[in-house]
Amino acid sequence: MSGNGHDDLEAGPSKGDDNLNNHFDPDADPTDPFDIFHTKNAPLETLKRWRQAALVLNASRRFRYTLDLRKEEEKEQRKRMIRAHAQVIRAALLFKLAGEKLIVPGTPVASPVANGDYAIGLEQLSSMTRDHKFSVLQQYGGVKGLSGVLRTNLEKGINGDEADLLNRRNAFGSNTYPRKKGRSFWRFLWEAWQDLTLIILIIAAAVSLGLGIKTEGLKQGWYDGGSIFLAVFLVIVVTATSDYRQSLQFQNLNEEKRNIQLEVMRAGRTVKISIYDVVVGDVVPLKIGDQIPADGILITGHSLAIDESSMTGESKIVHKDKKEPFLMSGCKVADGVGTMLVTGVGINTEWGLLMASISEDTGEETPLQVRLNGVATFIGIVGLAVAVSVLAVLLVRYFTGHTKDPGGTTQFIKGHTKFDDAFNDVVKIFTIAVTIVVVAVPEGLPLAVTLTLAYSMRKMMADKALVRRLSACETMGSATTICSDKTGTLTLNEMTVVEAFVGKKKINPPSDSSQLHLSVVSLLSEGVAQNSTGNVFVSKDGGAVEISGSPTEKAILSWAVKLGMKFDVIRSESTILHVFPFNSEKKRGGVALQRSDSEVYIHWKGAAEIVLASCSGYLDSNGCLQSINEDREFFKAVIDEMAANSLRCIALAYRLCEKEKVPADEEGFSGWVLPEENLVLLAIVGIKDPCRSCVKDAVQICMDAGVKVRMVTGDNIQTAKAIALECGILSSAEDSTEPTIIEGKVFRALSEKEREQVAKKITVMGRSSPSDKLLLVQALRKGGDVVAVTGDGTNDAPALHEADIGLSMGIQGTEVAKESSDIIILDDNFASVVKVVRWGRSVYANIQKFIQFQLTVNVAALVINVVAAISSGDVPLNSVQLLWVNLIMDTLGALALATEPPTDNLMHRSPVGRREPLITNIMWRNLLIQALYQVTVLLVLNFAGLSILHLKDDGNRKHAVEVKNTLIFNAFVMCQIFNEFNARKPEEINCFKGVTKNYLFMGIVGFTFILQIIIIEFLGKFTSTVRLDWQLWLVSLGIGIISWPLAMLGKLIPVPKTPLAAYFTKPFQRCRTSRNA
């Protein structure tokens, strides 16, 4: 069957290639658990290893969006249990849902008797299919008798008007199932406070509160403890709100993934509907790669094979025929074609029950998440060491009498200080140390990936890309090559027949039947109408003819209709005996028909040069049979000329079949191979599929970005070459020599080593099968490329699975291809693929911006507190202030920087290497300049602030110290606010470019600034600060603003190309190598 929507590339699954996803990486460090460059299909041991190695303060939050290894196992156990005890579980679930009033409207509890307008009860009908009760089906008169009971026409389907649909939903339920509710906001609040450091702070705050009230009374004593409580509460609420918003975005995206669109027959026409709108009685056409949308019974089928592994757990292909007609929802069509009558929907199917019982979204990790967990762990260990050191220094200084309060009085004098006071002071010291841990361990760093991915995924939906796997969104930023289909991706998929040859005569215009003999038109019409998965609907009121099917089918059907084909009449005049569905290995499809006069005709349709090779004769335009031997070269020249004009060449041929060679029964048909030699050529048609207008620009953008575009197509190599030149994939005809342009069979014949060498040079591969595509992907990956692949056919699944990023087509793609892919391109457009590359690079760039910003805060805060603690026994930034800084840094900073939209600049640089360090030399330079500046200014203020600010003259020393510390805190926050602008553009001097268009960034910066004013001016009791006059506000702003010119000057300093990390890791690697040797 030609033009199955996937003629470009379909082949049988590749054999003998079990180890599809090769995880071998020569640069991988086996001793580093965070060195996972590819999480797609990664082994469970690897995933467990990095989790165990990570330093985590709040596991439930940190690992929320990673794969839940325990839940995965539970899910498999639940599947096995449902398969074994489906009946009991269904009854229990219905009982529970009825109690909770959660049953989907129109999903009644099963009734054993006749159901309203239908002479069969819901339970009778659904149990017949579920339990494969063939004898019960026979009692109703088989599928034909059952269709009468369900008021369905097996050829035209149900009426499909609103009243009919409502009636069916009320009687038999809707094709939906109750889903497990997502986590509530309260659950996120609960998870947010599970952080070990926050729990310690809450305990410390409680102790401080109790001691404060005891020593200073309720009016004054609650401030210290109460302020920490308030700060921790604020951190928890902001964190939970941010996490909850992300979770809602993921829920919406999951809903999009589940909403499959499919075709059904209603009132004689093919209509596209959502899987949720399928009702009992619907007639659903099935073809390779489709998901069976509901339980049903086979009406007709040819070579129909079903993959039931999703339901039975056994990867066994089951053949369906009239003796084995029952079809289960959720299974996939592995081969053949057919139509089914829907008999069970929603929770009345095992698939619906399974979906209602398990939580689908168990998360996954991305390589960047794993690497950031490594970074967070390293920083956390350093921070922990610093916190312990500060704690030790402060305690030693305190108990040796070297610590003084702001008034200059020694805080601890042995034998004089009360136990309560000393205990309270020790709690404060301990609180400071714990807060340093909160600031030092960048718990928000791995979560920033999820935040930026959630944002990017939402935006990518608007750019016509639905992300199925998070990691693909990120990996796309590293893609070095895109292997693209031609049909529908580089072209519009709007096909029309523009040239036709019947015999040696060119029919001009191609649809003028007056130039052809009636017998030729009759044979062409028969071949097109019967050898097709498409449909022609002619409305009775004389409206426009509606043609459905794949673009190739529609083009050929439309041409035949113009020639005078009466679709329904021709279909009724002969009976289909056997079908050979379109096969990409053979590039053709065929059908055997028995006419009313008992003659058996075989019609073939497929790739022109392949069908031509099987022909021994041809019909001329007068209907006379001619030998093809002398004219074979003429037809080859016709095909070449059409192909050179970017036309897809399809040939139609037929032959008579001797009756004695036709099997007598259905069993004989199942193994019958349609005769495919000695064919008679009927016609060669040239189908025009214009290039998309935006493709040339999109290909150029890819080339500028260092991403090589390769075209892999099942079409004739000349057609492929012409389209590649038109799209800009090939720059000139002179380039088009082997191996730049190669045929699939030539590439396939090479040895593995030769394929690796040749793969790099290939730009266009014509006449390729999916197994050739898989070989190309494997060869490119072994050569170090990060490969993105587009695919739409069922047999593209291995290549989509093997590639670093599998891109399936939303319009022409089969469900099997979509499930094997990582991203679905909703409009099948190559320009959308390029937008995905932009977003992938944006994800990486945004994470780097956030890392630079966060590490600057980390380094500055730690150094300031450590130096101050060691030298003076006191810290200028207290617990509440550090918690506020942590909030700016972790949640608000991530929100501001992780949601920066992609810029054109991203597509003017090379792809990010998989092993490129996360913190580049440019980032180190920017980070160190800002951190050094902040540390220097703030330490100078800490030690000489009283003199510089002329506060020594202040009679109240305690007030003077409080003013100085408030200024340090205020200036520190201002530095972070202004540095947030610098972090937006790590490499560009102008960091303000496009800032006004990013409303979220401006909103967060404004919100932070206003909150800081409120904290200083009105919440001094909580933060241990005092009000600042306008001059000191100007000083704070001035200290912050200086970071802008400083950053601009810093960006002029050149950096070495060798990553800074390499200087530190090389000695260790040498040491390890020598030890292993």
Q: Which value, in Å, is the CA radius of gyration?
A: 35 Å
Report helical residue fraction: 40-55%
Remind me, CATH topology of the largest domain?
Calcium-transporting ATPase, transmembrane domain
Number of strands: 26
Helical stretch count? 39
Mind telling me the CATH class of the largest domain? Mainly Alpha
The major pleated sheet works out as:
9 strands, mixed
Distance between the termini: 61 Å
- Backbone structural class: alpha/beta
CATH superfamily of the largest domain: Calcium-transporting ATPase, transmembrane domain
Query: Number of folding domains?
Result: 4
Global shape: elongated
Query: So, CATH architecture of the largest domain?
Result: Up-down Bundle
Low-confidence stretches: 1-26, 101-113
Description:
This protein folds into 4 domains: 122-179 and 259-357, Calcium-transporting ATPase, cytoplasmic transduction domain A, CATH 2.70.150; 366-455 and 838-901 and 919-1056, Calcium-transporting ATPase, transmembrane domain (Up-down Bundle), CATH 1.20.1110.10; 465-491 and 692-828, HAD superfamily/HAD-like (Rossmann fold, 3-Layer(aba) Sandwich); 509-540 and 549-660 and 670-682, 3-Layer(aba) Sandwich (Calcium-transporting ATPase, cytoplasmic domain N), CATH 3.40.1110. The protein has 1077 residues and is of the alpha/beta class. The protein is 50% helix and 14% strand. The longest helix has 43 residues, at 830-872. The strands form 5 sheets. Strands 10, 11, 14, 15, 16, 17, 18, 19 and 20 form a 9-stranded mixed beta sheet that branches. It has an 8-stranded mixed beta sheet with strand order 8-26-25-24-9-21-23-22, sandwiched between helices. Strands 3, 4, 5, 6 and 7 form a 5-stranded antiparallel beta sheet that branches. The protein has 39 helices and 26 strands. GO terms for molecular function: ATP binding; ATP hydrolysis activity; calmodulin binding; metal ion binding; P-type calcium transporter activity. Residues 142-213 form the Cation-transporting P-type ATPase N-terminal domain. It comes from Durio zibethinus (Durian). Residues 1-26 have a biased composition (Basic and acidic residues).
